[in-house]
Design goal:
Elements (H helix, E strand, L loop, with lengths): L2 E4 L5 H13 L5 H6 L1 H4 L12 E4 L5 E5 L2 E2 L13 E5 L2 E3 L8 H16 L1 E8 L4 H6 L3 E2 L8 E5 L6 H7 L4 E4 L2 H6 L11 H6 L10 E5 L8 H9 L6 E3 L9 H6 L2 H9 L4 E3 L4 H7 L13 H13 L11 E4 L2 H13 L4 E5 L8 E4 L1 H7 L2 H6 L6 E5 L12 E8 L5 E12 L2 E7 L6 H20 L4 E9 L5 E7 L4 H16 L4 E9 L6 H18 L2 E6 L9 E8 L2 H17 L25
């Protein structure tokens, strides 16, 4: 395995020869190479000044090098008001080693070192033959290219402060206990067997920016951890323990029942991060357990909490929709029917439920189509119902509608803000989210962050420890209506984790879209699915985007699908990569003799539980 280390005295001549061999690899003639030999020469006295590092293999052979140099216009970072500018002056790989990941190793090392030194702008004047590499690494085109070169830039940043606080700045053990968390609420809207939740446990890959181990209930493809870890810079040391639960929700109990595994998990000496807290998880992690600290996972309890916060004033841009608890199904029918007669739509909610399960938007037209409110309500899951005022959104269909605040309360009871995200929601069902700079307009982001932080303070006082979010809808007047709180990790939280890691690795400013379900045109054998995902990763990289197969196990369901994460530095590239992924996924199996067996005929709304 290759590693990067500082250049050593006495290496300058050998490194110069490597640079010239690498440059000649692209077919340049002797006259051109002679003309640029002075510029490409590595001088002994410059090894330290140019911050040159060498990529070497296990045998100690130098196979590449990169320099990290002062940018000139901003100077060496000095802690002043202007962040420094650095340049990658050299980045060359031995021709025989091209394609082995050494260029990636050197580039990521340069970005990391630039961030650590306080540089906040990194310039690269690339050979045109290397432009595709820098684009794939996340660098973006920049103005002012010198003759014959292509200029790129990146924004080196350290890991976000909230991400360091989340795990104390160290790697963590991720416990994919999605089904276990859901089961403790015994909600009638959820699949009693919690089978779909085991697919969503794959999001354990994103419970923190850097895992040490993943604990998963369902077997995952052998290649999957590498497909996720390569773009996120995990390295080979991440361990995956999968197939731990054959049936039922009890992942933590399954680990506790294996003393050797439980001892290994505890022996890491690293924090454990679950999807959400449960009694069995608390025993596994050795942390206090207070079931009442999860009371605001209840939609009616969260509504009451929001009302108390708003009663204190200070949030003029936030308006709470009315909510009533129906004492019986008959009472729910009466209220819904009365609202329909007045031309009003209604939201029916179960007390718990995830990703939109147990939430139904009831319009007057839908009641007529169902044959009346009684017939419609009869089709809903049993259990208590909450009747809530429907909030009409902006007239512009492209205006932000469904938003979320993410934050967490650390072990000492201190709340932290993570950020705001834009969600993709249809008929009350969550389908995905986008996070990143500028995704949520400032006019909505400021009041959203203020109200979310107020909720975080209340949750901390109530004893909650861990991640939480607050979901909102924007109304026609541009105000925010809080609709529920979730006291666990979510799909948007996975996107925030990935964005923090990609920013640290590739430069700040990533937009990340996590998509709940991308329908596949056919069920594939594991090896073919690996080929499809590898091709998607390559094609997205060609656009300057990152593709990650977030949930692979859905591809083996009778109605196959894939959970995916796509990241880029611009909305245009993000949208282009997302469209490419959807198109290629649906095209899977087109060449099969039966016309694409396994092609999904269900709509997204019928495809089953979606955990967020």
């Amino acid at each position: 395995m290759a590693k990067a280390r500082p250049a050593r005295p006495g290496e300058a001549a050998a490194l110069t020869a490597l640079v010239m061999r690498s440059k000649a690899h692209w077919g340049y003639g002797a006259e051109f190479l002679a003309a640029c030999a002075g510029e490409l020469r590595v001088r002994e006295e410059e090894l330290t000044a140019r911050r040159i590092v060498v990529a070497e293999n296990a045998r100690g052979e130098a196979l590449g090098l990169a320099s990290l140099e002062d940018g000139g216009n901003a100077g060496v970072p000095d802690g002043g008001d202007s962040p420094g500018t650095a340049r990658i002056g050299l980045l060359f790989v031995e021709p025989s080693a091209i394609g082995r990941g050494l260029g990636r190793l050197l580039y990521l090392d340069a970005v990391r070192r630039a961030a650590a030194l306080g540089f906040r702008r990194l310039l690269i004047d690339a050979d045109p033959h290397a432009a595709g590499f820098y684009r794939a690494m996340g660098a973006v085109p920049a103005a002012g290219s010198p003759p014959g070169l292509v200029r790129f830039e990146a924004a080196p940043v350290p890991l976000a402060a909230w991400a360091r606080a989340w795990t104390g700045g160290v790697a963590a053990v991720h416990v994919g206990n999605v089904a276990e968390f859901n089961a403790q609420f015994a909600d009638a809207s959820l699949d009693p067997a919690q089978e779909p939740a085991h697919d969503y446990a794959c999001l354990a890959a994103f419970y923190s920016p850097r895992p040490a181990a993943l604990l998963l209930p369902r077997p995952v493809p052998r290649w999957w951890a590498g497909a996720v870890g390569r773009p996120l810079g995990w390295g080979p040391e991440v361990e995956v323990y999968d197939g731990l639960v054959e049936r039922g929700p009890g992942l933590s109990e399954a680990v506790l029942a294996r003393p050797a595994l439980a001892g290994r998990v505890r022996g890491y000496g690293l924090p454990l991060v679950p999807w959400g807290r449960t009694g069995p998880y608390a025993r596994l992690a050795g942390v206090p357990w207070r079931p009442d600290a999860l009371r605001y996972e209840s939609k009616s309890a969260a509504h009451a909490l929001f009302a108390r916060i708003l009663a204190g004033g200070g949030h003029p841009a936030v308006a709470l929709p009315a909510q009533w608890r129906a004492g019986s199904r008959r009472a729910a029918v009466r209220r819904v029917a009365a609202r329909a007669r007045a031309g009003e739509s209604t939201v029916l909610k179960s007390e718990h439920g995830v990703g939109g399960s147990g939430t139904t938007v009831v319009t007057p037209g839908r009641i007529r189509a169902a044959g009346g409110a009684r017939a419609l309500v009869r089709r809903l899951p049993r259990g208590p119902l909450l009747v809530e005022e429907y909030v009409h959104g902006p007239a512009d269909p492209d205006a932000p509608r469904d938003l979320t605040y993410d934050g967490f309360v650390d072990g000492a009871g201190r709340p932290h803000t993570v950020g705001a995200a834009l969600m993709d929601v249809a008929d009350g069902g969550y389908r995905g989210a986008v996070v990143g700079p500028g995704v949520v307009p400032a006019r909505l982001e400021a009041p959203l962050l203020e109200f979310g932080a107020a909720v975080g303070r209340e949750l901390a006082a109530a004893g909650h420890r861990g991640w939480f979010d607050v979901d909102f809808v924007a109304d026609a007047a541009g105000r925010l209506a809080p609709t529920e709180a979730n006291l666990r990790l979510t799909g948007p939280s996975a996107a925030f984790m990935a964005a923090a890691r990609l920013d640290e690795l590739r430069g700040g400013g990533h937009l990340v879209r996590i998509t709940d379900r991308v329908e596949l045109g056919a069920r594939l054998p594991e090896a073919q699915l690996e080929e499809v995902c590898a091709a998607l990763a390559r094609d997205c990289a060609g656009l300057g985007a990152v593709f990650v197969p977030a949930i692979p196990t859905g591809a083996f369901e009778p109605e196959p699908w894939l959970g995916v994460l796509v990241a880029a530095h611009s909305r245009g590239v993000l949208d282009a990569a997302g469209a490419l992924v959807r198109e290629r996924a649906l095209a899977v199996g087109e060449g099969f003799a039966d016309g694409g067996r396994g092609h999904s005929s269900k709509s997204k709304g019928e495809a089953g539980l979606r955990v967020r």
